[in-house]
Structure formats: C-alpha cells, structure tokens
Amino acid sequence: MSFAQFSLNNAWLIPMLPFIGFLLIVTFFKRMEKTASTTAIIFSAMSLALALGVVAAIAQRPELIEEPFVRSFRWFSMPGLEISMGMMVDTVAAVMLFVVTLVATMVMIYSTGYMHGDPGYTRFFAYLCLFASSMLGLVIATNLLQMFVFWELVGLCSYLLIGYYYFKDSAREAAKKAFMTTRIGDFGLLLGIVVLQLNLGTLEFTELAEKLPAFAAAKPALLTLIGTLIFIGPIGKSGQFPLHVWLPDAMEGPSPVSALIHAATMVVAGVYLVARLFTLFHVSPEAQHLVAYIGGFTAFFAASIALTQREMKRILAYSTVSQLGYMMMALGVGSLTASMFHLMTHAFFKALMFLAAGSALHALHGTADIFEMGGLRKKMPWTAAFMVIGMLAIAGIPPFAGFWSKDEILLMTKLHGFTDLYILASLTAFMTAFYMSRMVFVAFFGPENPKNHPHESPASMLFPMSVLAVLAVVGGLVGTPWTEHGFGYWVRFGEYHHPEADWTVMGGSVVLAVAGIALAWAIYGAKVIDAEKLKQRTGFLHTLSFRKFFIDEIYQWFNEKIVTGAGKMLYWVDLHIVDGLIDGMAYITGKFGEQLRLTQTGQLQHYALVLVGAIVLLVLLMGIVGADSAMALMGGGR
Amino acid sequence: MLKEYLAISMFFIVALLIPVAVIFISRLVAPKKTTPEKEEVYECGVDTVGDTWIRFKTSYFLYALVFVVFDVETVFLYPWAVQFQQLGTFAFVEMFIFIAILVVGFWYAWKEGALEWK
Amino acid sequence: MNFSLLSSEMLAAGLGTGLLILGLIAPKTENRRGFGYITAFGLLAVLVATFFQYGINQSTFHELWIVDDYSVFMKQVFIVAAILVVLSAVDFVETLPRFRGEFFALIVYALLGMMVMASANDLITIYVGLELMTITFFVLVAYQLGDGRSSEAGIKYLILGSVSSAVLLYGMSILYGLTGTTTIPEMLTKLTWSPILVVAIVMLIGGFGFKISLVPFHMWSPDIYEGAPTPITAFLAVASKAAGFAVMVRVFLLGLPLEGAVDWMLLISLLAGITMVIGNVVAIPQTNIKRMLAYSSVAQAGYMIAGLMSMDAPGVKGILFYSMIYVVANVGAFTVATLVRRALDTDTIADYAGLGQRQPLLASTLTICLLSLAGIPPLSGFVGKFYIFQAVMDKGILWPAFVGFVMSMISVYYYLNVALYMWRDDPKDDRPVPVPGPAKLVIVLSLVVTVVLGVYPGPLGELATMAAKSLF
C-alpha cells in the first residue's frame, strides 16, 4: 500500500496526531520548553505529511470528486437518532486539510522564535496543538453533530488563545467578546441542526445530500428557515456582518494566533460549513441569496472600515473580514470552486501578512500604530519584502495568488447574473488595494522613525514566512483559466465547466487594483495629495469609517441600556422571588431530610418493625386499591 | 353438616371458658400479700444464683456446624448408596467431588481449631 | 443435562475452594497479598469465560437453570465489581488481624451466590443463591475483628437479613401454594387474582426490596454500610444490589402476570417514587461519607427500579447499563473512602478537606464518580439515567422522569458538598495519603471508564440491548 493510500485510509490520524502532541505536552513536557515546541512541530508536520498524502491519493482517484471517502462507526444510538463518528474525505476536505496542517506547522515553527522567553511557552504550544486537532476534526466530520462538537472546541481554543495574555484586561475582554459573539451564532446553528434532524431524521452529510432535493420540493419555506438558522453559525464564526465585531478585537492574542486562527483556519470554518452543506443551500435559493448578499455586503463594509484604521493588525483583521465576505459571496452566487480557491490562496497570503506584521511588532516591542513605525524597509528587508508580496497578492496583481482566486469570484458573480454584487465586489477590490498599499507605504517606506530601533527577526521566523511567500506567489497558478484540470476540475459541485478567460473582468480588476495602489502612493508615498486635507474634506465619512460605523457603540449602548436594564430587573426578580423560592425549598428539603434522619435510630427492633409494618401496610393498600380490579374480575367486568 | 360443627365449636368455647374463669375467679378471691421470697422465680425450690443471661462457649456452635455438614452428607449418601447400581459411573464421580468439597471444609475447620476445646 | 451451562459457576466455585486450600497450605505468617492477585486474575479468567456464553440462550435441569444473554451480562457486572473490590482491598486486608486469606475466598463465594441468582429460573434456586450470597455477607460485614462497629453491623445485618429472608421465603411458598410450581415461566400462566396473591407479591417486593434497599426496606443500609469494612461496603452496595435487581427483573417481568392478576406495577412505581425522594433528601444532612453514599445508593435503586416500569427491552437495557456504570462509579468512590480511612482514620466528610492538594488523583476520581452518580453529562451516569427514563417516557409515563430529574438536581447538592471540601479547603494536617498500586489501578480504571462510557456509550449500550432482548 502506497503512502498516499495509507494516508487516505487513515485520515483520522491527521487530527489525532496533534491531539497526541497536546496530551504529551500537558502531561509530560509542561516544564520542558524545547521538547514541548519540538513535539508540537513534529506532530503537526506528520499531519502535514499525511494531508499531502491524502491530496496525492485523491489525485490518483478522480472518482472521489463525486463520491466522498467515508469511514465511520456508530457513536451512540437511540430510537429515532443515530449518530456516527468518523471521517469523510473529499476534495473540499483535502484542500482544507492541506491548508490547515500547512499553516499550523508554519505558525508553530514561527512561534518558536516569536514566543521565545514567554513564561507561558509550553501552554501556548499545547493550545496550538489542541486547536489544530479540533480544527482538523471539524474538517473530516461526517455529520453535523460531530462537526458541531469540534466547532465548539475550536471556539474554546480561540477563546483560550485570544485571552492568552490573561493578565491584560483588554485581552480578557476581547476573549469574552469573541466567545459571546460567536455563541450567538452557535445558538442559531444548533437550532438549525435540531430542526434539520427533526425533519430529515439524519445529520450525515452523505444522507442529507440524498434526501434534501426531495425535501426542498416538498417544503421549500421550511428549508429556507433551516438554511437561515444554520447560516447564523457561520455569520458568527466567520465574522460576517453584523457579528463581525469580535474579530478585530481578537487581535489581542499573540500574532501567530492571529495568523493561524483568525486569518487562515478557524474563521474559514464558517465558509467550510456552508461549503459542506452546499447541497442544502443549492436547493434553497432564498437561503443562498442571503449568503451571497451578506457576504457581499460584509466584504464592502469591512473594506471601508479598513481604509482609515491606524493599527496594523486591526487593518489586517478588517481585511480578513472583507475577504471572508468574498468567500461567502462566492458560495452564495453558487460557485464552490471560487470560494474554496480563494479560501486557499487567502490562507497563504493572509497568514504571511500576519506573520510579517508579527515580525514587525516583535521588532518594535508592541508599537501598533503604522504611523509611528515608519521606514522599516531598511532595517527589516525580509519582513518588508514578505509584506509587499502579501500586499500584491491580496490587491490582485497578476500573477500573484490572490489575483486568480479573486478573478474567479468576480467572474462567477458576473456569470451568475449578480451584477449588483459584481459592482460591489469590484469596488471592494479597489479599496482593498488602497488600504493594503497604504499600510505598506506608511509602515515600511516612509522616513525612519528615530524613536524605534527595529531589527530583523531570527531565521526561525523568516523561514515559515518564506514558505508562505512562495505559495502566495505561485499558489494561484493551479487555478488559472488556462490550467488544464486545474483547481476547478477537482473542487467543484456538479458538472465541470471550464471557465473561459473573461478579459473585461480580468482587465477591470487589474486596473482597479493598480488604481488603488497608485492612489495610496499618491497620498502616502509621494504625498502629492495631502492626507490631512482629505480627511477634513471627507469629514463625516472619515469619522464613520474610522469609528467602524459606530457598530461597537451601538452594541455597547444596546448592552448597557437595554440588556443591563433588563438584567437588573431580572436580577431583582431572581434575587427576591426565584432565589427566595429556591432557598425556601432548599430549607424545607433540608429540614425534611433532618427530620427523616431521626427515624434512623440505630435500633434493630425499629428497623425490623418498619420492615414488617411496611409489608402489612402495603398489603392493606393493595387490598383497597386492588379491590375494584378484583370486583371487576369477579363481576366479569373485564 | 353445619350442626355438627356447631356442637363441636360450642364444646370448644366452653372448654376455653372454664380455665379462664377459674384463673379469673381465683385472682378475685385470693389474698394478695407479696414478700420478696414470693416474688422469686420458682425453680425447684432453690434460690437462683447469678444472671440467667449467661454466655455460651462458641465451640458448641462450631461443633453443631460441623455436625450439620456430616448430617447433610449422610442425607445425600443414603439414596445414592441405594440407587448406586443404576446411577453408574457419572454419579460415582459426582459423589466423590461432593465428598471432596466437604473434606476441604472439614480440613479447614480442623486446621483452624474448630475441634479443639479451649 | 448440559453442564457447560454451569461452566462459569464451576470456575468460580473452583477458584473459591482453591483459595481456601491455598490458605491451608501456605504458612500462616506469610502475607496474603498474593491471594488478592490470584483472585483478581482468576476472576478475570472467569470474566473472559463468560463472554463465550453470549448467544447460548438455553436452560437445563428441567428449566431450573437458564443461561441467556441477560444472565451473562449480569454475571459480568458482578464479576467486574468483584475484581475491582478485590484489587482495592489487597492492602486493606493486610491490616486485618486474622483470616486474611479467607477474605478473598469469601468474596468469591458471595460472587458465586450472585451468579447463581442471575441464572436461576426457579424460586428455590434463587433462594439458594440468595442465601449463599447473604450468609457470606454476614461474615464479611463483621470481618473487622475487634472493631465494635463492624460486629454491630454484622449482627444487625444477620438479624434483619434473616427477617427479610423469612419474608421472601413466605412469599415464595405462597406462590408455590397458588400454582404448584416454582419455575418462573410456568407461574406466569397459572397465576390469577386472589387476595393471598396480594400478600405474596408484597412479600416478594419486601424481600427483594431489602436486598436492593428500596424504601421502606432500606433502613438497614446506612448502619451496615457505615460499620462494615469499606471494601465490603462497596461490594455490598454494588454487587449485592445488582444481584437483587437481576432476580427482581426476571421474577416480575417473566413470572408475575399483570393482566388479570395483581397490579404489582402500581406498587413498584409507588416505591420507586418514594425511594428516589427519600434517598436523596436524607442524604443531604449526612456528615459521614459512607452514610452519604448509602443514602445515595438508596436513591440510585429508585432510579434503576423505575426502569422496570417500561416493561420492555429498552427499560431492562437501561437497568443493565446503569448497573454496570453504577458499579464502576461506586467502587471508585468507595475505594477513595477506603484509602482516606486508612491514611487519616476518618469517614467524616469535613475531614476530606484539602484532598485536592494532598492527592489530586483521589480527589478528582471522587469528584467525577460522584458527579456521574448525580447524572451530570457527559459522564456515564447521565447516559444511564437517560436510557432508563427515556424507555419509561416512551411508554407515556412521564412522572418518573420528572421526579428523577428534580431529585438528581437535589443530589448534586450533597455530592458537590464533598467536592467543595476537597477542592476549596486546606488540609487540616500534613499526613500523607498514600495510594498503593492495586488501588491506584482501580481508581484510574473507574475514572477512565466513567468518562469514556459517558462520551462513547455505544458498545456497552449495544451489549446491554442484546442482553435485554434475550429476556423477551
């Protein structure tokens, strides 16, 4: 059996290995820093090897595109519900496995440098392993319940890692915010799962795919409801409007965490869930349109916020929200291919940018404002180069990876007749190019800030960045319109259509990207246009963008006035009425118990008396109660 | 039929009533002058000495138990011996297993000193 | 006659007798640790042997003896309990002044009695097994020579046990008088309503109820549990109770008709409800951990007997599954109590203060086991309760589930009370609490099994389903 075949048959090992790593670290290597990080890296590298094996195995067996490879065993069963646990590998899952294991491994290598000397070093690696394991378990889930379990687990890991610097107030607040905001989404998702189970009697993806078309024909309205409820989960997890507020705050966590969890992997879990349930959204057009428009709006909305932000990781966070919106939109317009393609390339270049940002922050000891960085290019040539590569990729300059996937999304949006979304997405592309190049020009190209003493990062941090940089450059070539049997052949839903290159779309997006970069250069590089004046001119719009459309303030107000008010009232009710009731009941129960305890005299005669007395009493009772059944019997009533 | 029973039951009732009446009447007419001697338990004319609640030696109990073991053995051996010819080898082996188990028990009792009067 | 059906009982009897002989041969001065390991391995062999009896479903000796999947599952419950108890007792036995080797032999004989009960298909065979078990327990309860409380418990158990046996025997003899048979399936066809049958059934419930400590026949259990040596308490609480359930389910479901006879279900449901309430409520003010566990086991009997109300395979499956996880969780808790008793010479809950700092393994095992008994998901106790109450609810009877739910909420209070002492408070002194090897094995096993069966109950659940189906 070849390695590829072995990997496919034992794909469950992929999430298992990091979990073993996690157990080893928490049980044995708690105080051995080097051993702990090496263990983590070795185990995730083995997962990466297996994931590559899975990809190779799928490349040998094209039939897996249509028929997923499923192995499962029964987890538990009860009348009317059977839940299995297992693994399901198809091309979509294979892409995810590859992306997650790759980014996880790179981030772990990077962290050996970045987290060096941190007091919670081993804890950090333990969390990373646990996260990788849960995320991979989510990827190969065979049914919605298994997926939900892992979905919650990654949420937990995210919570732990955002609050990693638990001694900082802001980190604790951010962790809490992230957890609670995503909980809202999870609740919707859980409701959706329950309704789905009640109506279809199964949660297995393969069985759902068979049953859904008939169900869609019978009860379209109910299916729309289910789709909407389920989509609330991805809205929370993937930071879609209006539950996107937690993601920028989540940047309180260490930069490698932002790269791994809040850019490349966990946040795309929502996209992945929608992709997994593509059969459902495919037969429910209303729900699918909801996905498309939420996605499109989020993309545009988040990009417009990113225009004016000043903190480097915050800009990247909003850009992540925006790009996730792109992926959702692609799914919404009906293209699984484009969405997954963008998911992959985005993981490459966004992880790269976060790592580069982490490198810069590491060098500057926490100066977050890009306007205070200034001219890092000279002292940190490699980091600057990586950041530029990432910028070009996300802006959509050919032949970088982001260009091909973004082009695919724009093309699909146009082809499927969503002209409004196409225009919105193109504008977003322009804004993306603008704010990304703004960040690069301000932070890396301006005059040096004499207050800073940056230095280039160690090789352990540069190596993973270079790997991701190479992929950010060439990673898109697997899916160009000219590639035979490219990405779209392998990852698709339904029949394979080889997309024709659309020169207007392609040219349009390039022109917009170049225009965005040029504008940024004019303002922040060459300073032809005065930034301050522009700010005053646009006045209200600038404030709106800078303050993130006051969404946080609105939520804050809602929280303080309404939720807290209601909370106070309920607290009063709870304190005086419910609590009193419970306390009273507890008191009575306790007293009752103490009285009954007195019946336990320790006297043998008593016990024997109770025993025999009880028998007599029960006979009497049965005699009285049983009398009518006896009468009925003797009177022949029955 | 019932009449005969009636006669018998009448007889029973009268028989019961007479001793009850005798005891009751003697109680009524007898003089009551109690002295400590009169309150004593009547035991063959001799005063009782010490507590009637005394401890036995547990060895009695052990002897009794060992006796029961052999008693049971005999109960099984008798019919087996009578029907021995018809029962065949199987029953023969079976009885030996039974006796072996008893012997283990007896061995144990012996070794633990159940048969020694200390 | 098919003697292969008796193979596991023969093995157990051989093991017990062999241990006795070994004790006679071995020098008196030598320690008896080896006996414990021999017993454990021997029982493990018997456990393995029982697996080959699945799927036989035959009876022999003129239907007096039956080997169906139900009886095999029950035997496995007893054997698992015995193995765990033996291992946890190895070090305890060394502290006994006399009769150390016989301790293990007696446990095996008690186990033999339980196994006979599980396979008995006839009232007399049931009684013989029951007495073998009960009389052995009289001895075991009073095993701690020189400890007044142990002797007191032994005498109390002897007298009350005899009373209950007498009651049971009376009930059985009435049944024989009514039907002219003692075989359970034959009784089913011959019983019709009569006032004397009411008496008989109440007496059966009284006799069996004593064994499973059903309120109001539970009065003995706290006193005897407290006085008996802790490993024996564990064995008494889990195996003896499970054996009581084994026969009770068989006699009531297969031997006593409901239609046209006495409505015993009414009685069972009434007692189940009372037991759930009383057991949990009285457990609250207890300050001694063994008494607390005694009342908790009374309450658990209430949950289990509720499974009988569904009168079908899912309900019995619930009882079977619950017995197994009940055994594991309770033995875990009692083993911790044994170790603490040995190290600190106390059973008072308040003296468990700071156990979390002294021995985190013990404290976490006790916490997990107690939470499992309380039925907190995702521990196995929750799954067991879920199976039982779901089966009953499927029959449209909702109140047991409601009472059970409320009462398990109450039970959380007194279970967590122990956890509170262990984790919140500081130890009162710095005496160490040593955990010897075999006891550690028991503790880790019970911890792991309690958690694993909660998360992944599948295989055991299916085994229990198969066993339950063999009854119907």
UniProtKB/TrEMBL annotation, chain A:
Membrane topology: Multi-pass membrane protein
Name recorded for this polypeptide: NADH dehydrogenase subunit L
One cellular component term from this protein's GO annotations in UniProt: membrane
Compartments in which it is found: Endomembrane system; Membrane
Pfam families: Proton_antipo_M (PF00361), Proton_antipo_N (PF00662)
Xref: InterPro entries: NADHpl_OxRdtase_5_subgr (IPR018393), ND/Mrp_TM (IPR001750), NU5C-like (IPR003945), Proton_antipo_N (IPR001516)
Alphabetic keyword roster: Membrane, Transmembrane, Transmembrane helix
Family: Belongs to the CPA3 antiporters (TC 2.A.63) subunit A family.
Membrane spanning stretches: 12-29, 41-59, 91-112, 124-142, 148-167, 187-205, 217-236, 257-278, 290-308, 315-341, 347-368, 380-401, 421-441, 462-483, 503-526, 607-627
Residue ranges annotated for the NADH-Ubiquinone oxidoreductase (complex I) chain 5 N-terminal domain, each copy included: 75-125
Residue stretches making up the NADH:quinone oxidoreductase/Mrp antiporter transmembrane domain: 141-432
Keyword Thylakoid: no
Any one Gene Ontology BP term: ATP synthesis coupled electron transport
Domain of life of the organism encoding this protein: Bacteria
GO molecular function, one term: NADH dehydrogenase activity
From TrEMBL, chain B:
Residue ranges crossing the lipid bilayer per the database entry: 6-30, 60-81, 87-110
Source organism, top-level taxon: Bacteria
Xref: InterPro entries: NAD(P)H_OxRDtase_bac/plastid (IPR023043), NADH_UbQ/plastoQ_OxRdtase_su3 (IPR000440), NDAH_ubi_oxred_su3_sf (IPR038430)
Compartment annotation: Cell membrane; Membrane
Keyword list, A-Z: Cell membrane, Membrane, NAD, Quinone, Translocase, Transmembrane, Transmembrane helix, Transport
Predominant location: membrane
EC number assigned by the record: 7.1.1.-
GO CC annotations, alphabetized: NADH dehydrogenase complex; plasma membrane
UniProt catalytic activity: a quinone + NADH + 5 H(+)(in) = a quinol + NAD(+) + 4 H(+)(out)
Any Pfam family: Oxidored_q4
One MF annotation (Gene Ontology) recorded for this entry: NADH dehydrogenase (quinone) (non-electrogenic) activity
Membrane topology: Multi-pass membrane protein
Assembly description: NDH-1 is composed of 14 different subunits. Subunits NuoA, H, J, K, L, M, N constitute the membrane sector of the complex.
Function, as annotated: NDH-1 shuttles electrons from NADH, via FMN and iron-sulfur (Fe-S) centers, to quinones in the respiratory chain. The immediate electron acceptor for the enzyme in this species is believed to be a menaquinone. Couples the redox reaction to proton translocation (for every two electrons transferred, four hydrogen ions are translocated across the cytoplasmic membrane), and thus conserves the redox energy in a proton gradient.
Record-linked HAMAP family: NDH1_NuoA
Family, as annotated: Belongs to the complex I subunit 3 family.
Protein name: NADH-quinone oxidoreductase subunit A
Gene field: nuoA
Automatic annotation (TrEMBL), chain C:
GO CC, any one term: endomembrane system
Record key words, sorted: Cell membrane, Membrane, NAD, Quinone, Translocase, Transmembrane, Transmembrane helix, Transport
Topology relative to the membrane: Multi-pass membrane protein
Domain NADH:quinone oxidoreductase/Mrp antiporter transmembrane: 120-411
Catalytic activity: a quinone + NADH + 5 H(+)(in) = a quinol + NAD(+) + 4 H(+)(out)
Subcellular location: Cell membrane; Endomembrane system; Membrane
Role noted for this protein: NDH-1 shuttles electrons from NADH, via FMN and iron-sulfur (Fe-S) centers, to quinones in the respiratory chain. The immediate electron acceptor for the enzyme in this species is believed to be a menaquinone. Couples the redox reaction to proton translocation (for every two electrons transferred, four hydrogen ions are translocated across the cytoplasmic membrane), and thus conserves the redox energy in a proton gradient.
Subunit record text: NDH-1 is composed of 14 different subunits. Subunits NuoA, H, J, K, L, M, N constitute the membrane sector of the complex.
Name of the protein: NADH-quinone oxidoreductase subunit N
Organism name: Heliophilum fasciatum
Taxon lineage: Bacteria, Bacillati, Bacillota, Clostridia, Eubacteriales
Primary gene name: nuoN
